[in-house]
Amino acid sequence: MSGIVWALLGAAVAVIFAGMGSAYGVGIAGQAASGVVTEDPSKFAKVLVIQLLPGTQGIYGLLVAFLTLSKIGVLGGQIADISLVTGLLIFTACLPVGLVGLVSARHQGTTAAAAIGIVAKKPDQFGKAMLFPAMVETYAILSLLVSILAVTGIPL
Questions:
Q1: Region for residue 40 given its phi and psi (left: phi exceeds 0; alpha: psi -120 to 50; beta: otherwise)
Q2: Contact criterion met (CB below 8 Å) for 93 and 14
Q3: Res 1 pLDDT > 80
Q4: CA-based angle 11:12:17, to the nearest 5?
Q5: Alpha-carbon gap, residue 109 to 24, rounded angstroms
C-alpha cells in the first residue's frame, strides 16, 4: 500500500472509532435521560446537556481527520506524493484520538447515565453530577492533543 492510503486510513480510523464510541456513549446516556424525562419533563435541559458529553469524542476524531485530509492535500484538491513511511507516521498519529475516543466515549456514556440518575433524584446537584463524566473527557482531550501535535508535526 502507498503512503497516501495509510494516511487516508489514519483519517478514517480517527473518525470511525471515535464516532463509534460517541454513538454508543450518547445512546447509553440517552436511555437514562429518556427515563428521567418521562417522569419529569422539566429536567429535559439538564439531562440533555449531560447526554451530549460523550459526543465530543466523535467531534475530536472528525477534527483530526480534517487536519489530516488538509495536510495531505485531499481537501485542497492537490494530493501530496507521500512516502510509505510518512503515510504510516500519519496513520499512527491518528490512532490516539481514534482509540481513546472509542474507549473514553463508551465509559463517558455510562458515567453520564449515572450522572443523569443524580439529576433525577437531586436536580440541585447538576453541577456536581457534570463533574463525573467531565473527568472522563480529560483523557479524550489529551488524546486529541497528542494526535493534533503528531499530525501537524510530520513533515511531508
A1: beta
A2: no
A3: no
A4: 110
A5: 7
